[in-house]
Amino acid sequence: MTDSKPKYANFPERELKVLIGANISATTIKTLTRLSIGTYEMSFLQQEKGKATGDAVKTAVTLKAKAANLTVTKEASREFVSVYVAQNAELKIQVWVTTPFELTQANHIIWVRYSELTPEGKTGVAFKLATAFSADDVANLIKTAEKNSIQLPAGEPFPLKGNPPPRFQKKAAAAAPGADAPAAEAPAAEAAAPEA
User: Fold this and answer.
1) How far is Cα 148 from Cα 45, in angstroms, rounded to an integer?
2) Residues 158, 17 contacting (CB under 8 angstroms)
3) Number of structural domains, the chain?
4) Could you say which residues of the chain have pLDDT below 70?
5) 157 is a domain residue
6) Host domain of residue 101
7) pLDDT at 170
8) For the segment 48-84, what is each residue's pLDDT rounded down to a tens digit?
9) Full-model pTM
10) d(CA 2, CA 191)
């Protein structure tokens, strides 16, 4: 029997709730709901990987900020390895690098929130879980958050969705052209038939 109770991710901001949706693996769901260790409890190896990820985030956010004319600030935090905010009057991009979840491993999450500060107010959230990140990974994550942005009513949680399995994507793609083919053949057959 499936559990119908909604699960929420441990998202860095408390005013936005992130609802874990379909097509996310059970292992990832478990990780998204866990609390991470603090920065003071990190081992030397974890600190090195965190610093490398922080540098990659700084590079990616700075490049995005230059392209979109945003101002970048780094916020001090004891809960996160690094927190960067890039914003102007119309747009705000926030990036958090979490600390690892256990003392014996180096997996950490990068969370990105893309917010349009216009009256429409679109919001997008994306995450990635890994042991190390490059600036390209972070830049792609920012693009994903922008692509995922939707207009949220006040107080509604953001629905976080995973990628559907490839077998479902293939069936949907194959069904779409097959449905259009008979409709396209019918006008061609009518044009070829002589009028009586």
Assistant:
1) 33
2) yes
3) 1
4) 1-4, 167-196
5) yes
6) 18-163
7) 59
8) 888 888 899 999 999 999 998 999 999 988 888 889 9
9) 0.77
10) 54
